[in-house]
Amino acid sequence: MVWDKELDELALRTRLSEQMGGEDKVARHRANGRLPVRDRIGKLVDAGSFYEVGDLAGTGRYDSHGRLIDFVPSNFITGRARIDSRPVVLAADDFTVRGGANDGSVGDKLMASESMARDLQLPLIRLVDGTGGGGSVKNIEVKGHALLPKLRMWPAMTQNLATVPVVSMALGSVAGLGAARVTTSHYSIMVKNTSQMFIAGPPVVARIGQKLEKNELGGSAIHTRNGVCDDEVNSEEEAFERTRRFLSYMPRSVFELPPRTEEKPPASEQFEWLRTVVPQDNRSVYKMRPIVNALVDEGSFMEIGARWGRPLITGLARIKGLPVVIIASDPYYYGGAWDKQASEKFVRMLDLAELFHFPVVNFVDVPGFQIGLAAEKEGAMRYGVRALTAVAQSTVPWCTFIVRKAFGVAAGGHQSDGRFNFRYAWPSAQWGSLPVEGGLEVAYKSELEAAEKPEEKLIEIEERVRALTSPFRSAEAFVIENVIDPVSTRALLEEFVDVVAPILKPGPRSFSYRP
């Protein structure tokens, strides 16, 4: 055949590119408990579906006759694949070539992956395992000059946050640009013990007198508890599974609606236990997660960010097959009071709902913003105001159940008063500008000072006021639309999705996602 020589060279180059950094480096990578990049891709996507873009990019070595004798592939692999038969774009670092550093890549492959996802309106999955954006400082000597950081890919990354689902997995030690790419996502994952994220790694930090091991400085125990990364898993395979699950709720882009699946009933149709789950003593705690899991389609609740912003439980679930965002108070942490992290977590989930057209289901037990010196020092009010602003900007349908407390400015964020929302109260609900027990001494100061027995007077006043705080009194004044038997909560959720599903509309929003 006329082109046998060229086809033979194509086969050779393809074979060499698939060797990654070479047998020794791949074996060392496996010995460190990490999968080679092509194994990762094979385990993540549908079998045989990956089509690589730029597979021949790399650095060739030639003999004196111009014949190829060796080839080092690019350490950045990109292309298209399918997950559960739906198309996605992959962007994967190969640590076995130049430690995954950006200077080991060739041309504009990273930029091409971001552009491909943006322009084809496809979800983007980043498998990040690189040492940073600029590579080694040896580049200064090699190039003869220092490079000014310009982040040419950042506008495209920002556009992707506003257009397509972006998932990032930290699968090794990632620093600088690598860490930034993980965080610039709608959903991010770290692998316990084998992945770390740094602004600068241990050798650089040692120069300022801090001698720390990798996990001490930037392990998953740090970054999945401060909100830099969403979730921690025990293995790379678990990271791939969570990625697939997250994408199962997502539309292809903002120009589509979330995929509705076949209706699946809740785990049990017996809800009588909900009548007794909330203690009558409002200082006692109870578990909110069993309530959420019981009310959504069986097995459909995927919690996101379980280890940070812990006064809030957030995630994705389905009601009659329709994907929804779940926000629920957790009274086990600060009684459900919002701190800085809780407010940040709230904003991220609302942005996700707004961007990808998820209705919001909100289970409320909020005694207010966290109080005290620590809360004031961390600026809890500033972050709380951001959360309340996100509520006011929200345009997707909301369904709110006030399970117990709703006090203060923070509780005002249970839904936007600027438009109609579904809102119900359980009989255990109580609300006001302040909890009764926290405001009596101030409100009735003069009456208490004039009493012969102030302690007995305080008890009398509290009993008198509490008699007026019943949700039924508020319902008489239409302060709350409905007080319900908790048993009917699932039925009301089903009615909610039946009513709002037809009015969900795809398309871009007026503001982007705030990572």
Features:
single chain; 515 residues; alpha/beta; seven-stranded mixed sheet; 21 helices; 36% helix
Would you mind describing this structure in some detail?
It contains 21 helices and 18 strands. The protein has helices spanning 4-17, 23-31, 37-44, 109-120, 138-143, 154-161, 177-183, 202-205, 214-218, 220-223, 236-249, 289-295, 340-356, 373-377, 380-393, 408-411, 436-443, 445-450, 454-466, 471-476, 489-500; strands spanning 51-53, 58-62, 68-73, 76-83, 86-93, 124-128, 166-170, 173-175, 187-191, 196-198, 231-233, 302-303, 312-319, 322-329, 360-366, 398-407, 422-425, 430-432. α4 (109-120) packs parallel to α6 (154-161), α13 runs parallel beside α15 and α17 (436-443) packs across α19 (454-466). It is elongated and about 105 Å long. The mean pLDDT is 90.
Alpha-beta content class: alpha/beta
Major sheet size, sense and barrel closure: 7 strands, mixed
Biggest sheet strand line-up: 1-4-5-6-7-9-11
| Total of DSSP H or I helical runs spanning 4+ residues | 21
**On the 0-100 scale, what is the average pLDDT?**
90
Say how many strands there are.
Answer: 18
Write the layout of secondary structure elements.
Elements: H1 4-17, H2 23-31, H3 37-44, E1 51-53, E2 58-62, E3 68-73, E4 76-83, E5 86-93, H4 109-120, E6 124-128, H5 138-143, H6 154-161, E7 166-170, E8 173-175, H7 177-183, E9 187-191, E10 196-198, H8 202-205, H9 214-218, H10 220-223, E11 231-233, H11 236-249, H12 289-295, E12 302-303, E13 312-319, E14 322-329, H13 340-356, E15 360-366, H14 373-377, H15 380-393, E16 398-407, H16 408-411, E17 422-425, E18 430-432, H17 436-443, H18 445-450, H19 454-466, H20 471-476, H21 489-500
Parallel strand pairs: 5-6, 6-7, 7-9, 8-10, 9-11, 14-15, 15-16, 16-17, 16-18
Antiparallel strand pairs: 1-4, 2-3, 4-5, 12-13, 13-14
Helix pairs in contact: 4-6, 13-15, 17-19
